[in-house]
Amino acid sequence: MAKPNKKGPTKTVDIFCSQCKTQLFKYRKGGKGALVKCFVERISQDFTNETGICPDCQRQFARETMIRGAPALKIIGGKVTHK
């Protein structure tokens, strides 16, 4: 399979924890669909201390995985919101 585009989209979205509304990171998202996965190379600003865990409420919102040969965070449904 093809790897994700390295340059990626220029539009950034802010990703928040759905429980405590803490900002988790800024992500260069492509398309207008739901947020299912976040490629690590597309995260422009990371506000978390541990990967996939909210720094405020300590709730897990994502799991580390490899998608198309690139490291990514697989988002757990309903745990994050984005603007």
UniProtKB/TrEMBL annotation:
Top-level taxon of the source organism: Bacteria
Please identify the protein, giving its name as recorded: Zn-ribbon motif protein
Taxonomic source organism: Pseudoalteromonas shioyasakiensis
